[in-house]
Amino acid sequence: RWTPLEVRLAAELPGELAAEATALAARLGLAAPRERADRLHELCKSREHQGLIARMPAYPYLDPAALWPALPANPCLLVLDAIQDAFNFGAILRCAEVFGADAVIVGTTGQCEVTSQVVRSSAGAVHHVPIVQAESLTACLQELATRGVRLVAASEKGAQPPFATDFRGPTAVVIGNEGRGIAPALLALCAATVAIPQQGRVGSLNAAVAAGVLLYEVSRQRVGG
After folding, report:
1. Is residue 159 left, alpha or beta, with left meaning phi > 0 and alpha meaning psi from -120 to 50?
2. Which of 47, 49, 50, 154 is packed most tightly, with the most Cβ within 10 A?
3. How far is CA 30 from CA 3, 7, 12, 116, in A?
4. Per-residue pLDDT tens over the stretch 104-129
5. Helix/strand/coil for 8
6. Nearest-angstrom CA–CA distance, 98 and 69
7. Which residues 6+ apart lie within 8 Å of 169 measured at CB?
8. DSSP per residue over 12-35, as a string?
9. Residue 200 pLDDT exceeds 90
């Protein structure tokens, strides 16, 4: 889905790994020249490349219009309202892929883009879970509701815990911004609001952790356990 423009390998990369990377690059019609490790540090402005770097084009988000015909009969979707932290965004995508979400929907305002840090935090999930970018999250949620998808908001002010909520039908879980939560206009469109039970003294969970807990509950209800 996301093809590199250029690939480079560290000269010190072990032979077997270098051969595999070179073969994968060749399959994409790319050379994979060897460079000294310090040159790779310079090119990617980091020492955390592990001996392989790629120059990437802009991430190819899906358009909502392409999502609708591709939705399964009983979709599980995740909607993110302006997640700003790259670590959070990547971790959320990782959770979405692990727990079988059919797509992650993001907006264009205040939302972290898919960056190299997001890719690393997602453990590669950006290559497996479809990421849809909508000009208007409000219009997108309205379209989902029209298509019979139940919108469930995550909020510490929620009326019920996740395990008391029925996630077995078509569902879109909405996760809000790290600071302000879900925008009022989006919250008003949701059919239910859930709160994860807490016993400690900290007021709320990290957005990525909350997404993981909720997606686990969706998965548990659908596959049993």
Report:
1. alpha
2. 154
3. 10, 7, 20, 20
4. 999 999 999 999 899 999 999 999 99
5. strand
6. 23
7. 74, 150
8. TS-HHHHHHHHHHHHHTT----EE
9. no
Q: Which two tokens stand for residue 125?
A: 């999930």
- CB neighbourhood size of 139 (10 A): 11
Compute the Cα dihedral for 123, 24, 31, 57 and give only its sign. negative
> Quick check: helix, strand or coil at residue 97?
helix
89: number of Cβ within 10 Å: 27
The whole model's pTM is what?
Answer: 0.91
Q: In angstroms, how far is the first alpha carbon of the chain from the final one?
A: 33
Q: How far is CA 41 from the centre of its chain?
A: 27
Tokens of 122: 């997602």
Hey, which bits of the chain come out as E strands? 6-10, 34-35, 52-55, 76-80, 103-106, 131-133, 150-154, 171-175, 192-194
pLDDT band at 225 (very low <50, low <70, confident <90, very high): low
Which percentage of the chain shows pLDDT scores above 90? 85
d(CA 76, CA 171) in angstroms, rounded, equals 5
* Mean pLDDT along residues 57-76: 94
Q: How many CB atoms lie within 10 A of CB 62?
A: 17
CA-nearest of 151, 156, 155, 178 to 77 is: 151
Look at residues 51, 50, 45 and name the one whose alpha carbon lies nearest to residue 8: 51
